[in-house]
Amino acid sequence: MSLNPRIDRWQGRRVWLIGASSGIGRATASLLHGRGARVIVSARQAAALDDFVAAHPGSQALALDITDRAALQQASDQLLAAGPLDLVCYLAGHYQPMRAMDIDLDDALRHQQVNLTGVWHLLAALLPALLAQGHGHVSLVSSVAGFRGLPRSLAYGPTKAALINLAESLYLDLQPRGLGVSVITPGFVATPLTAGNDFPMPALLTPEQAAAEIVRGWERGEFMIHFPKRFSRFLLLLRLLPYRAYFALVRRLTGL
């Protein structure tokens, strides 16, 4: 049974994708544009957004820094003044491997600002209008790294775990009021964020494959859209292990 309303067509739907200058965000925007959605793409890189619009006529670019609360409020007001938004997806993210022996406080706080605080800026700006219009869908991109603590994920993992918890709370509040909520938990995807990883990335997907999984999940009305299933299901099962077994297994699998 679907937890959200199924989306059976994209033609004419206004979709705002935040963090769409590259990687999964750009691929998802391209896919939705091809299906007839009225796509708005946002990120800091204005040139990359302009390139997207040039290649996808009819789409709209709106450059912004999601850590700037006033800028995001202004962008939200501007888009809502032009009409209702049918789906808003927060894909912006920051990732650098980090371990407890080498804490970089500035970078740790950058994870917090981009991966989580930006979401709060978006929700504060957007939710009153979505509640007033009585329909729409909010989607947050987390990660399988948010399921449980993992090596090298000291700064990244906690922010992604928070997004899963946040989406669950949002769903309980917003679903009875006619809004859809979903959380997206990808495994490894070949993007600029993962390009610097110096360890094996099992079941690595292309951004286009990830975009197809995301759109399919929205169309099916899923709450947690996780992929690739052969990898994400394994990590979901690890959530059930007691700590002694979990820590021993992760150390054996990672060699750390």
UniProtKB/TrEMBL annotation:
Residue span, Ketoreductase domain: 13-187
Alphabetized InterPro entries for the sequence: KR_dom, NAD(P)-bd_dom_sf, SDR_fam
Acetylation as UniProt keyword: no
Gene Ontology MF annotations: oxidoreductase activity
Organism superkingdom: Bacteria
Keyword list, A-Z: Oxidoreductase
Keyword Oxidoreductase among UniProt keywords: yes
CC terms in the record's Gene Ontology section: membrane
Family to which this protein belongs: Belongs to the short-chain dehydrogenases/reductases (SDR) family.
PANTHER family for this protein: DEHYDROGENASE/REDUCTASE SDR FAMILY MEMBER 7B, DEHYDROGENASE_REDUCTASE SDR FAMILY MEMBER 7B
Protein name in the entry: Short-chain dehydrogenase
Origin species: Malikia spinosa
